[in-house]
Amino acid sequence: MMQEPQLTLADVPGQPLLEVDDLHIRFAGEDGPVHAVRGVSFTLGCEKLAIVGESGSGKSTVGRAIMRLHPRSAHITARRCRLGGTELLSLPERQMQAIRGQRISMILQDPKYSLNPVIKVGEQVAEAYRVHHRLSKKELRERALGMLETVQIRHPERVYDLYPHEVSGGMGQRIMIAMMMITRPELIIADEPTSALDVSVRQQVLSTLDRLVSEHRMGLIFISHDLNLVRHFCDRVLVMYAGRVVESIAAADLDQAQHPYTQGLLAALPRLNQRQARLPTLQRDPAWRDASTVGVAA
Length: 298
What we know:
Layout: E1 18-27, E2 34-44, E3 48-52, H1 59-67, E4 75-77, E5 80-83, E6 86-87, H2 93-99, E7 104-107, H3 111-114, H4 121-130, H5 137-150, H6 156-160, H7 169-181, E8 187-191, H8 199-216, E9 219-224, H9 227-233, E10 236-241, E11 244-250, H10 260-267
Parallel strand pairs: 3-9, 3-10, 7-8, 8-9
Antiparallel strand pairs: 1-2, 1-4, 1-5, 5-6, 10-11
């Protein structure tokens, strides 16, 4: 028997889905601790929040910390890292396992490395639900087929019995979305989910993700390096440099960014309608690592 949708934080007026306050992450290095994330703070409601920055800026590190996927050697502290009333960082691992996949899901960059190559894709989608709910094999199959259809996969019965190497990159990413969405989580963390896709397939995947997040009133953290993509897809943008949030701004207002780092990233973007002999080079100021955040709003 299919279970009815549960009440989530999205149904509580004024209650943020996620609160992160003063998050710090350190890793052990050969020359001493490496401070990878420095005092990151933000809140998330039923919206699409982008975290952008160069490689090594700490954006994926923040996403994995929320999921508690870092090795035990990582030193993670925060005044608050709360999903609703649940403090994630202090939870015993057994309770955190119940939250992963059920209340928070993460879509990774390349399905070729995320899907098990020796298990049929439909069985993997069904397994994501079976971990948290007890259903018969028939009911699990029906739910998985319904989810494959929801993410706009044609002929889901045929695709159910395929192995990961038999599907295209775009279909593989939609299968990953189906796996992560089948439990109807409150929060989705998408880490570069379209970077391995061509432009037309990328738009299809983004449209599917946008529709699902809107219909089910979820929060989305969209980790990316593509400013042009997030300005059209997301509601707000956090810009990270050297582990610190240097600016928070509405995605539609990116062209009015105040921080010189954000301005430099925007200036370095190639433009089809503006001929340039040479793209500007991003200039970095070491003081940005310690300076107060510019233009931050929750």
